[in-house]
Amino acid sequence: MTLKNASVLVIDDDLDVLTAVRLLMKTEAKDVTIEKNPENIRNLLSKQRFDVIMLDMNFNSSINTGNEGIFWLRKIKELGSDAAVIMITAYGDIDLAVRSLKEGAADFVVKPWHNERLIDTIKEALKKKEGAKQGGSQKNEQSVRGELLGESDVMQDIFYKIEKIAPTDANILVLGENGTGKDLIAKAIHQHSIRSKQAFVKVDVGALTDSLFESELFGHKKGAFTDAREDRIGRFESANGGTLFLDEIGNISLRQQAKLLTVLQNRQINKLGSNEPIPVDIRLVCATNVSMTELANEDRFRKDLIYRINTVEITIPPLRKRGEDIVLLARHFCKVYTSKYMKPNIELNNSAIEKLKQYHFPGNVRELQYTIERAVIMAEGDDLQAKDLLFSPLEAPAAVKEEIDDMKLSTMERNTILKVIEKHNGNISKAAKELGLTRTALYRRLNKYDI
């Protein structure tokens, strides 16, 4: 079905929104019905069949659940309507809108929208609806995966979220520990966006000093500073029309944050050494290993900048919380590196798999990848066994290492006390003298180690 032949129902308690959509759709659709009160949905659906329903997420209604949109979406489904429901939402409710997709919504649009984008969204919803009728509509999760692998529930949720938010122009903040694959998420978002044919530019902003920050991001004119021997465009200009990925955004200084905020607000840059503003059109994806709680500390990060970069957030779980994905990824890396190092017959045996399952992977997917690569290189047989998997102590958090060291020291001290007491046939005074302790100090240790 085409939009020209479609009947559209718009439900929103904002009269300005209703008027704007009716005027826009007047020449695009067969007919457009507008309604302020969602309580009238049942009556409207009993009188007419609609192909598309645009439904606001929040109403000043008696329901007052905080998610009225999902309530009325369920009602529409209960009433047997096969209309493609498109949720209307504000930036602050995008996570709620994404959840509505699991309730059966076809898509969502964010206020204020571009008219062309709204029409494209409606056309796409109609196309999906028609495909479903013909039995050709299937959820193609692989289409958004790219280099991402995972079958766990948490990863399925991430794939689903990428599929829905990638086609929008919303700014994305990707959160996760080091080694979880935040850059792969950023690439997947770009590859499935309307900007996919344009540039994807990555910058590790956490590694930029104050002196390099402006030059690297905004560019400079010849002579702007001592080493500026020629004009140079910055990363914002390089990404114009495409996606700019700012990695380790949580590590930039407050001064750098202020400069970045100015550019995002004005959507234009000024090169160092120039007063001429240059407009830029980028889709922004940021990533950090800093938690949202830490980012909320205004002594560390500007709250107004968080709102700019975090229209939607995606939190990648650590590998230890991904269950069987550990084995899936291990077998994938094993296949990759046995091919690379020309050892095609090598496979993980059961003991190796059990060892992988029991390890906590503080270095996440990156640590797993390097562990498998090292094991394949050093392997002498066709089986990778538990003893072949050596985990790097460099990845262990400081607290874990201290705990391990403390345990080792405690064990040594306990064993030494037992040997000296045994040597002196239980004489505490002689044992304390040899150990260089007072009797009181030795008794404290005996109590500590339950001797």
TrEMBL record:
Location of the Response regulatory domain: 7-126
Record InterPro entries: AAA+_ATPase, AAA_lid_NorR, CheY-like_superfamily, Homeodomain-like_sf, HTH_Fis, P-loop_NTPase, Sig_transdc_resp-reg_receiver, Sigma_54_int
Keywords: ATP-binding, DNA-binding, Nucleotide-binding, Phosphoprotein, Transcription, Transcription regulation
Residues with the 4-aspartylphosphate modification: D56
Name this protein carries in UniProt: DNA-binding transcriptional response regulator, NtrC family, contains REC, AAA-type ATPase, and a Fis-type DNA-binding domains
Gene Ontology MF: a single term: ATP binding
Organism (species): Filimonas lacunae
Keyword Nucleotidyltransferase in annotation: no
Any one GO biological process: regulation of DNA-templated transcription
Statement: the UniProt record of this protein carries the keyword tRNA-binding: no
